[in-house]
Amino acid sequence: MKTILFVCTGNSCRSVMAAELFKKILGDKLAKVHVLSAGVGTIVGMRASEYTLKVLQKDGIDAIDHRSTPVTKKLLEESDLVIVMERFHKHRILEIAPHVKDKVYLLREFQKAPDEIIEPEILDPIGRPLEVYERSVDLIKEGLKDLFSWIKKEGWI
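The structure assignment produced for this chain is given below.
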């Protein structure tokens, strides 16, 4: 079984959205891929933000039981692929575990023409209006479609 770790800052918005949406995309193939989320600047046990729950509910996903997990060296080493939302997350991960550099990617790097992407990072919506969360979830969904294609091509599923 392969493990994909989605990472953001607080593990209350973007990484939660990405992990939950990717689980839904995987559907019955979820038995072959373990999907986790964590944050580079969080503490254990925080809930997903109110607007994160709201945008996920639009896709039929209930993440009310989510609790934040901090990124650790062990978690990074046990993951086959680490997907981050911002370059800052990648830099922080490489401070913790420099040897995992070959498996850390921005989510939007999986899109078909990553050099043409105007917004390569998915910025933090925390504390912003619902519309910002909706924009974040749209960008995440775009990246997840291409990530799904990539893991299929790689034979993970």
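Interim note for the steering committee: The first strand starts at residue 2 and ends at 8. The CA atoms of residues 19 and 37 lie 6 Å apart.
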